[in-house]
Design goal:
- By secondary structure, this protein is mainly α.
- It is built from four helices and two strands.
- The model has no long low-confidence stretch (mean pLDDT 91).
Length: 86
């Protein structure tokens, strides 16, 4: 719900002011993996590749708008790079 305003324009409620958190009911882990054939052996290596190959690299998640998708977008944005969500 907290990311809905970023994904859906024109919501009839304001998640920041109209809702009150009660309890955390779920959590999930995010993993960063590359093929064994990739030259990246660390996050720094991957970041360097993404900067050099901006717009050429793909990443996958469990679906559009999921934590993995948005984290991938944030990672690319923080690097000043572009990545293609597949």
């Amino acid at each position: 719900v907290s990311i809905n305003p970023s994904l859906y324009p024109g919501l009839k409620f304001n998640a920041a002011t109209d809702l009150q958190p009660v309890a955390m009911f779920a959590s999930s882990a995010l993993l960063l993996v590359v093929p064994a054939s990739s030259p990246a052996r660390s996050v720094a290596d991957l970041a360097e590749q993404m900067r050099k190959r901006s717009g050429e690299m793909n990443y996958a998640s469990s679906g559009s708008g999921t934590g993995g998708h948005l984290t991938g977008e944030m990672f690319a944005h923080a690097l000043g790079a572009k990545a293609i969500h597949v």
